Amino acid sequence: MLRRTTLRLGSRLYSLDTPLVMGIINVTPDSFYAGSRVGGEEALHVRIQQLIAEGASIADVGAYSSRPGAAEVSPEEERQRLELVLSILRCDYPELPVSLDTFRADIARWAVEEQGVACINDISGGALDPEMYRTVAELQVAYILMHMRGTPQDMMQQTDYADVTLEVLDYFIQRVGELTALGLHDLILDPGFGFSKTLEQNFELLERLGELHRLLPQPLLVGVSRKSMIYRSLGISPEEALNGTTVLNTLALERGASILRVHDVAAAVEAVRLWQQLQPYKRADEALHYYERRDSLTPHDEAEPR
Question: E strand or H helix at 213, and its extent?
Answer without folding.
Answer: helix 209-215
